[in-house]
Inverse folding.
């Protein structure tokens, strides 16, 4: 296990790369971590005006983005952007990240790969999919999961007509929660996935996990879990439960976010 070199992070340090205007991912990521695990954040930045081009640029420039961590020792780095994987495709993204991981000598994990690992971990073959993306990105997400071998029992966008993916940062969590609860009330699936790292979802995950017939996952939850595993960090404090098969015991930390 990689140990922290400084005063903080006595049980290890993780990195997270987030889209430039996204504060949700790093906030939820930190809430999910066990005590004694430090977290450093880098911003994926792009001047591209079109959201499709911006999402592609986040990934194409990820090597330079992570180089901003300089000499910081980290057990693993999570990339908090599913849209890049949905647009560029699993094979191309993961092959590139394998090379980057080798160069950096640390695991670099995409949010989409983390979600897939989590779905396989819980034995899910069918998923209900909800996202805050525009219609074109929802369709890309659906194709991605179908190509990865999952049956999409239902898919729904909270804001299908938005013009810019950054507008998800302004979505009301309360309104989103109400719509998600209503949508999933009668949907049966092995797993319920809220994709999109910019939408606050942890309170909703905690609430719905107690009432839906299958586990509720989110991009940030899966990414934190997979990054902790790759770093070899002890998960005893976040030991899974029946309702929370990845990480549990983090719910009380949401009041501090």
């Amino acid at each position: 296990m990689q140990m922290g070199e400084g005063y903080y992070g006595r049980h290890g340090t993780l990195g997270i790369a987030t889209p430039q205007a996204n504060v949700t991912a790093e906030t939820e990521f930190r809430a999910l971590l066990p005590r004694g695990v430090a977290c450093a954040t880098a911003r994926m930045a792009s001047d591209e005006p079109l959201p499709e081009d911006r999402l592609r640029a986040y990934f194409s420039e990820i090597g330079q983005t992570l180089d901003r961590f300089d000499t910081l020792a980290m057990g693993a780095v999570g990339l908090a952007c599913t849209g890049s994987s949905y647009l560029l495709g699993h094979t191309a993204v993961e092959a590139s990240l394998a090379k980057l991981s080798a160069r950096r000598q640390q695991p670099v994990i995409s949010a989409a790969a983390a979600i897939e690992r989590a779905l396989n971990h819980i034995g899910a073959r069918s998923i209900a999919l909800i996202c805050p993306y525009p219609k074109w990105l929802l369709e890309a997400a659906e194709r991605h999961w179908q190509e990865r071998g999952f049956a999409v029992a239902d898919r729904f966008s909270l804001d299908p007509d938005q013009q810019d993916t950054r507008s998800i940062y302004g979505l009301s969590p309360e309104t989103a929660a109400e719509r998600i609860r209503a949508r999933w009330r009668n949907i049966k699936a092995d797993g319920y996935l809220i994709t999109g790292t910019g939408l606050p979802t942890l309170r909703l995950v905690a609430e719905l996990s107690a009432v839906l017939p299958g586990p509720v996952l989110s991009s940030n939850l899966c990414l934190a879990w997979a990054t902790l595993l790759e770093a070899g960090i002890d998960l005893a404090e976040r030991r899974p439960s029946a309702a929370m098969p990845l990480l549990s015991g983090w719910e009380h930390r949401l009041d501090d976010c």
Notes: Residues 122-218 form a domain with the Rossmann fold fold (CATH 3.40.50.1860).
